[in-house]
Amino acid sequence: MTNKMIRIGTRDSQLAMWQAIRVQELLKNKGFESELVLIKSEGDLDLITPLYEMGVQGVFTRTLDSALLAGRIDIAVHSMKDVPTQPAKGIVAAAVLERGNYIDLLVPKNGTAFLEDTASQALVATSSIRRRAQWLHRYPQHNITNLRGNVNTRLRKLAESDWDGAIFAAAGLERTELRPANAVSLNWMLPAPAQGAILVVCREDDAASLEACSLLNHAETAICTKAERDFLRVLMGGCSTPISALAEISDDTIRFRGNIFSYDGRDHFSIELDEKLGNDAGDIGIKAGKRILEAGAHKIIEQIRKSG
């Protein structure tokens, strides 16, 4: 029996296209033909409003998910960190691809001397309140300005601005082959839950698409990103909450690190946990979330809710 043509829904940015084409290549390797269907998202159409003012949860995924539920496409490809922890009714995860680079990068305008100057009131650009909070915790004397747009647009804005630098996800710059030679890895900055991972979703009643995409699933990445998103869900956070998480597997152990910051970076709570794979290791993100709340993180969450 001939496999059906799988319609892949994607945003039309360079990075989104890279992700969709990667899924298309992987499907072809498994014997499935597919075609791309380009769809504009709310996040792409509004390039001015800061993400944290757009109620960001799902801002880059809602339009694609609507097209999926309407039957215009068979699968949708998302940057996993943009996907709400609670999927839309009728939509299920079909595959998590092997994770790319999860690190954040600083792209400086004219060198990094300002990082060593404790008197510097440098101006650094980012639209992420997670990056903003962690940056201000480390460099409280600096100022943060908003930066929106796709990777190409943000690099252009940096070049045309008087900013000292801008923060990017390494995966986005590397996948589009736009990583500047002077980019600095921010190894001290914990990433967004599921940063660097790609999620493929489909309708829960589409057995054919679900079966095809399940062949692309990378088990280790799926385990780690589940833990990170469980942590996010327990803390009831989204893109508008300064929550970070990273789970990594080494030998037979999963190591989890997570934190939550106040918007201004002054207050924060962090946690680290290690679990042997198997047994209850699949719940490590939930455990970490509950423990950090018990340690006092609920105070930051209450502050954020009041300010929102």
Q: What's the total count of β strands?
A: 13
Widest sheet: strand order? Answer: 2-1-3-10-4
CATH architecture of the largest domain: 3-Layer(aba) Sandwich
The helix content is 25-40%
What would CATH call the class of the largest domain? Alpha Beta
Distance between the first and last residues' Cα: 54 Å
How many strands, what sense, and barrel or not for the largest sheet?
5 strands, mixed
* Mean pLDDT across residues: 90
Order of helices and strands: EHEHHEEEHEHEHEHEEHHEEEH
Catalytic activity: 4 porphobilinogen + H2O = hydroxymethylbilane + 4 NH4(+)
Domain Porphobilinogen deaminase N-terminal: 6-208
Cofactor: dipyrromethane
Family: Belongs to the HMBS family.
Report on the architecture of this protein:
Pfam families: Porphobil_deam, Porphobil_deamC. Belongs to the HMBS family. By secondary structure, this protein is an alpha/beta fold. The protein folds into three domains: 6-99 and 197-217, D-Maltodextrin-Binding Protein, domain 2 (3-Layer(aba) Sandwich), CATH 3.40.190; 104-185, 3-Layer(aba) Sandwich (D-Maltodextrin-Binding Protein, domain 2); 229-307, Porphobilinogen deaminase, C-terminal domain (Double Stranded RNA Binding Domain, 2-Layer Sandwich). The protein has helices at 14-29, 42-45, 62-69, 113-116, 129-138, 151-160, 170-175, 207-214, 219-234, 284-307, and strands at residues 6-10, 34-38, 75-79, 91-96, 104-108, 123-125, 143-145, 165-169, 184-185, 198-203, 243-250, 253-261, 268-276. α9 crosses α10 (284-307). The longest helix has 24 residues, at 284-307. 45% of the residues are buried.
